[in-house]
Amino acid sequence: MEDTIVAISTALGVGAISIVRLSGKDAIEIVNNCFEGKDLTKVNSHTINYGYIKNDEEIIDEVLVSVMKEPRTYTKENIVEINCHGGIIATNKILETMLENGARLAEPGEFTKRAFLNGRIDLVESESVMDLIESKSDEARSLAISSLKGNISNLIEEFRDNLKQLLSQIEVNIDYPEYYDIEVVTKQNIRDNLDGMKNNLNRLIKESKNTLPVKEGIKTVILGRPNVGKSSLLNALLNEDKAIVTEVAGTTRDIVEGEILLDGILLKMIDTAGIRKTANVVESIGVEKSLSLIKDADLVIVVLNNNEKLTKEDQEILEKTKHKPRIVVVNKVDLKTKLKLKEEIDNIITTSTIKNLGIEELKDKIKELFNIEQIKTKDYTYLSNSRQISLARRAYKELKQAEEALDNNVPIDMVEIDLKDAFDTLGEIIGETYSEEIIDNLFKNFCVGK
């Protein structure tokens, strides 16, 4: 990280202001070489300076230059931000000028990556930066802010501090093996502490898993035979004519997507091709695609026609979705009832998309299934993605192995191995231990200027 990086940190296009950001030991000198105004190498830190950016003798733009000197910056390096007039030509020309004067174009997420590598933020806080940028609801924003403030990092550090104390006791036991009472006290103390740690970690994992919809949204797939009202239901939920609705069977041949906010939680709605056997090649591909979406869906809405008897295709759909979180929507209740369902099928909502009946009841059922009201009333100290939850589960498994080893009277130094593994695994969550591959993969999804 000896070089100085540069990138455009605002969306490229016509606007009032664009920002070109530099970070690195030579950031101030590079900008100063192109700046007509005060000597930026002599101004105070965290000041804004008026002037012009020049390329040779040509004035490119009138600018305000923010100078922030290490270590009190986002990356803990010298940072300069050039605030220029918004516009593609001027912004790109300033970027080119910085590159010509010795800066290197930043990789995606490299500013935040440097903040992490320089100890400004940990890995959980780094991930929350991107979560904050991508948040589409107040709840997702609150979750990201909680992580960015270090709430979850502090919680993980508490777990690690407890493990560190237990490991210290084991070291004392190993150093003084002749004292039997030390080993007895050590084992009992570890057993008492492990029980509480396991329970707390398991609770965090469960609550975090339940809270993932806050960040990632609820992937909702609408399934059913042709002409049962799937597209009409999607349009009613979205309150717009997103999907084409006709009386012709097989109108929807590919997926149609839309998003709604349900009490602050994002629902990613997917309308699918009608499930039926067909000789039409295009429609057949759409049917196969529809069925393939079941596996990754967080919620499946199966739509049935109240005005028709249960068909073989209906039964197959119900069978394929019975192990998924599911709501069965019986549509067209404004027509004569011919449909009969088995008693064991639950979460049934009746609707008429033509008369806009049952739509609010459907929304309430979704909120009930995913405990949305409960999620919103809790704090936001949760693990926020699958990486963090997976590592927490691994740490829980290692703590459990240590507990089982104690119960089987395994030598204390062998128990220490499992505790050390759990300590290191928890460290991976916050980035105390990490691999270059993991770090590269994490930051490559960031925007370039962040």
Q: Could you tell me the radius of gyration in angstroms? A: 29 Å
Please, how many helices?
15
**Shape by Cα distribution:** flat
Residue ranges: pLDDT <50 for 5 or more in a row? 242-254
- Into which percent range does the helicity of residues fall? 40-55%
How would you name the CATH homologous superfamily of the largest domain? P-loop containing nucleotide triphosphate hydrolases
CATH level 1 class label of the largest domain: Alpha Beta
What is the topology, as strand order, of the major beta sheet?
3-4-5-6-2-1-7
Distance between the termini: 16 Å
The count of DSSP E runs of length 2 or more, i.e. the number of strands, is 13
**Derived structural class:** alpha/beta
User: What is the element string, with H for helices and E for strands?
Assistant: EEHEEEEHEHHHHHEHEEHEHEEHHHHH
CATH topology description of the largest domain: Rossmann fold
Strand content: 15-25%
Mean pLDDT: 84
Number of domains: 2
Tell me the major beta sheet: 7 strands, mixed
Which second-level CATH architecture of the largest domain applies? 3-Layer(aba) Sandwich
